[in-house]
Amino acid sequence: MSTASTRLPEGRYGRSSDERTDRTLKVVGAVLGGVLLAVVGWFGYHHVAGTDISAEVISFQTGSDRVAVHLEVRKDSGTSGYCTVRSQAENGAEVGRADFRFEGSGTRIDEVVTLRTTARGTTAELVGCHED
What we know:
By secondary structure, the chain is of the alpha+beta class. The chain has one helix at 16-49, and strands at residues 53-62, 66-75, 81-88, 94-102, 108-116, 125-131.
């Protein structure tokens, strides 16, 4: 009684093309992965390094027609620019928006600014900061 062989006959079907295809796919995948990583790194670096002015709202106090906003601004020495702040009413409608300029040789500015509103504001939100 003989047993059936589970191996393919040598040289009949060939495996060289499969091995070449696998190797080519691995090389192409590695190259594309490296390019994707480089592009994401480049965009990330320029997003972070491109901001010379950053700020945050420390606190705010609301009034019937104004909002006092305590801002802390960090910037490069000698850089001037502005930060945009807005306030919204309880129903979500925007009731005030203004730009506040920051200049000087210091790298950190801690200031309270007053945002005039058309109605009672319940929030103070920093929209963004931009260099001149």
